[in-house]
């Protein structure tokens, strides 16, 4: 029972509401007593085992402690029982104090060498009692211990008089429901600077997300400097808007130091023209076509600019091999995403190789063409070693032009048709990462970006009940904007059998960047991604199986302020009034309307 361990604690918390701090994500099991807060003067890390990755652990603690003692956090939004509305407490110092203080954090790690890879044990326990005089953390791996730190740093708060306190005793047993908890950045449509990428990693670590899926390039630009083919970055937006090898290594190292894996994606064979065409124009089809042709039936791309790798031209695979193997050497994660979404048949009408291939044997279909790609490209993707796990978008197995036979060990990322596609893929035995666009696409709802669009030029039916405009999708194919409640309420295992559920590795929230750059990326992700972070860490239900979305309210409002305080530029969710007056901004007084 996935949700059985969750949150018996929240009920017990009410007696110490003045310093009641709800870390996000909510731990699977947190038990508070009420003997009173104790002061925290200085916390020194002590580890019982020495491990190869001791330095990583030390730095993680330094970062947590730095945040604790520089912020001296005052929870921005506390919980209040229903229906007695209470004003914001005037200071955490109002609770009684225990006599002793804490000076050390004792960490015990069982396997100090465990690498940060898919499925690594991230569990931990954390115990604070005045009598012990220290914080005790037990974890299987340093990655679990690091999660304990991000919990602890949210529990230690200002005493209102310049010092720090922690409510105690507190006992936490914690572990994620899913091993794959991520967000996706897209640096192909618009460039995202290294510092802004690091900022996202900070937000991820604080919310215990562990996968940054990095969609490196797209049709529009190729920002990655390559040794094999230096000419590829002629299609970067500028000399400034590129990632050098040392930039990439820095991002990987920074992420790893916070327990975050980087899964790179090179989208192939669709969404591929920039960069590739510089190596050899022959390997790219339809780059000079008009993308929509003004007649949708003849479109060559779903958005400008068009271009796909030529699946039949043999020279394509040599370039794919060289690009892939260079990037495989840089990105150390076992997972590598190779795209495979949105292959547009119309594009290949511009390829002499593909059209001849169809003429050669008129029984061939676009499904056979996709199969040709799988048969020729997948062996290349596997060549980087036995631990390599290939990831693709679900299109390769579910679109009208899907391949006939996709190897079952390829992880598929599901983005269409919500539960239907998740059920389909898991029933067929694929491991699935959930990114259903109706729930988890963070870029939706900002209108369309294509220009010269007459559909906006409509004066009748201004609400758009019938037409395209405002009340309709307003030009955003996946409108509306997905709010944190929409994300958190997503029961993505609905109606799945246990066997199907076991194929769900986790979920990712993508933020495609046609309309995103450094200015908007952080507010695009945060704090909404934190709602997903909790959904995949400890779920969206309490121990009785009741949805706890309303319970998340104060937690996520507080967490938003905490993100901003830690330098992650998260957007605001509610008028400040709602934070200060818990539940006054609820739509329903009835606390069980969300089921
Ligand atoms: C939660 O933790 C407490 C304290 O360690 C323990 O007594 C209780 O059994 C745990 N609850 C569950 C459901 O695991
Ligand atoms: C591609 O070309 C074929 C043969 O000319 C034609 O029947 C088909 O409609 C074209 N498809 C697209 C999508 O342009
Ligand atoms: C999955 O979807 C495909 C395409 O719609 C369909 O042909 C197939 O029967 C479905 N399989 C399952 C197990 O639902
Ligand atoms: C789940 O299955 C039940 C029973 O077959 C059905 O009534 C319900 O609509 C399904 N839920 C979804 C979200 O598909
Ligand atoms: C609250 O909402 C739930 C779910 O709609 C309903 O079952 C329950 O009767 C409601 N309670 C009250 C007191 O109206």
UniProtKB/TrEMBL annotation:
Please give the Gene Ontology molecular function terms for this protein: beta-N-acetylglucosaminidase activity
Q: Name one GO cellular component term.
A: membrane
Kindly indicate where the leader peptide sits in this chain. Answer: 1-18
Annotated GO biological processes are:
carbohydrate metabolic process; glycosaminoglycan metabolic process
Q: Which SUPFAM superfamilies match?
A: (Trans)glycosidases, beta-N-acetylhexosaminidase-like domain
Q: Which domain of life is it from?
A: Eukaryota
State if Signal is listed as a keyword. Answer: yes
Active site residues according to the UniProt entry: 342
Q: What class of enzyme is it?
A: hydrolase
Q: Which UniProt keywords apply?
A: Glycoprotein, Glycosidase, Hydrolase, Signal
E.C. number, please? 3.2.1.52
User: A Pfam family for this UniProt protein?
Assistant: Glycohydro_20b2
User: What reaction(s) does this enzyme catalyze?
Assistant: Hydrolysis of terminal non-reducing N-acetyl-D-hexosamine residues in N-acetyl-beta-D-hexosaminides
List each copy of the Beta-hexosaminidase eukaryotic type N-terminal domain by range: 23-155
Indicate the segments forming the Glycoside hydrolase family 20 catalytic domain, all copies.
178-539
The UniProt record lists the keyword Ubl conjugation: no
> Which family is annotated?
Belongs to the glycosyl hydrolase 20 family.
Q: What is this protein called?
A: Beta-hexosaminidase
List the source organism: Penicillium cinerascens
